[in-house]
């Protein structure tokens, strides 16, 4: 039969041993909460995108669609076919996304190749 002091000492050792595990769980939870928030934002943006697409199916609304895409891009998400809907790294420009925005902005790619004097 162990004395109360030894029992308490054992208990204390066990508790100390659990601290890294608890801290690990706390970190995991923080990561999950962060990811959850990001996914909520992403989901919201994609919903708006889908609503825009279904509300305006006429090809004539290129400009509005482009504004929406630019908004999404500036919010930190890809709009290109390669990575659509995924996060851009902070301050990272994507050439595929930019080419979409540029291309539609100029709106006259055909004239690009024609030399104008
Ligand atoms: Zn992109």
Main attributes of the structure:
117 residues; mainly alpha; binds zinc ion
Sheet-strand content, in percent, reads: under 5%
Number of domains: 1
Number of helices: 4
Give the N-terminus to C-terminus distance in angstroms.
Answer: 101 Å
Q: What would you call the shape?
A: rod-shaped
How many DSSP E strands? 0
Note down, in words, how this protein is organized.
With 117 residues, the chain is mainly α. The chain has one domain. It is 70% helix and 0% strand. The chain has helices at residues 4-55, 62-74, 95-106, 109-113. Helix 1 packs antiparallel against helix 2 (62-74) and helix 2 (62-74) runs antiparallel to helix 3 (95-106). Residues 107-117 have low confidence and may be disordered. Zinc ion is lined by residues 78, 80, 82-83, 94, 96-97.
Can you describe this structure in just a few lines?
The chain has four helices and no strands.
Reconstruct the topology from this structure.
Layout: H1 4-55, H2 62-74, H3 95-106, H4 109-113
Helix pairs in contact: 1-2, 2-3
The structure holds zinc ion.
The site of zinc ion has 7 residues, from helix 3.
């Amino acid at each position: 039969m162990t004395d109360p002091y030894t029992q308490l000492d054992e208990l204390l050792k066990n508790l100390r041993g659990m601290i890294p595990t608890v801290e690990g769980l706390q970190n995991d939870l923080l990561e999950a909460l962060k990811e959850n928030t990001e996914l909520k934002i992403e989901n919201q943006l994609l919903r708006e995108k889908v609503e825009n697409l279904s509300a305006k199916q006429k090809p004539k609304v290129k400009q509005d669609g482009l504004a929406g895409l630019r908004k999404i891009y500036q919010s930190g998400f890809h709009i290109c076919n390669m990575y659509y809907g995924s996060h851009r790294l902070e301050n990272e420009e994507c050439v595929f996304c930019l080419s979409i925005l540029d291309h539609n902005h100029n709106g006259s790619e055909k004239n690009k190749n024609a030399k104008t004097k």
